[in-house]
Amino acid sequence: MIGDYLHQTITLERRQASSVVGGEPTYAAGVQLAARVQHELRAAHDSIGNQVVSSTQLDLEPATVIAPEDRVTVDGQKYRVISVKRQRGLDYESHVLAFLGG
């Protein structure tokens, strides 16, 4: 299924918390995942409903755990996850679509 199209490798770092000093987020150790990476400008909605521009989108395996504010590295460039959509077929979850921004 979707795995046949995931020919690129990305690094996902899940956001853990914000530090008390400075409020900078901390992230878990990175894990490598297979993905399909698309670099195109698309409208997306962030976690509070604002419409923003996503510069990069990822297609991932349906079991992938990824959330807004996680950090993704694609070809050495770091991105923030803006939003995540679980894509469905008629009776199954086909893949995860993640919208990334600077």
Short description:
The protein has 102 residues and is mostly beta strands. Strand 8 and strand 9 (77-88) form a beta hairpin.
Terminal residue distance: 30 Å
Q: Got a strand count? A: 10
> What number of domains?
1
Q: Structural class of the helices, strands and pairings?
A: mainly beta
Global geometry: globular
Low-confidence stretches: none
Estimate the strand proportion.
Answer: over 45%
Major sheet strand order? 1-4-7-10-9-8
SS element count, helices: 0
What's the CATH architecture name? Beta Barrel
Rg: 14 Å
Kindly report the average pLDDT value. 92
The name of the CATH topology is: Thrombin, subunit H
The level-1 CATH class? Mainly Beta
Q: Largest sheet, described in full?
A: 6 strands, antiparallel, barrel
Q: What string, H for helix and E for strand, traces the elements in order?
A: EEEEEEEEEE
Explain what the structure shows:
This protein has a six-stranded antiparallel β-barrel with strand order 1-4-7-10-9-8. A two-stranded antiparallel sheet has the order 2-3. It has a single domain (2-101), classed as Thrombin, subunit H. The model has no long low-confidence stretch (mean pLDDT 92). With 102 residues, the chain is an all-beta fold. It is built from no helices and ten strands. It starts with 7 loop residues before the first strand and ends with a strand.
Kindly list the characteristics that best describe this protein.
mainly beta, single chain, Thrombin, subunit H, two-stranded antiparallel ribbon, 102 residues, globular, 6-stranded antiparallel barrel
Write the layout of secondary structure elements.
Elements: E1 8-13, E2 15-18, E3 25-27, E4 31-38, E5 42-45, E6 51-54, E7 56-60, E8 71-74, E9 77-88, E10 93-101
Antiparallel strand pairs: 1-4, 1-8, 2-3, 4-7, 5-6, 7-10, 8-9, 9-10
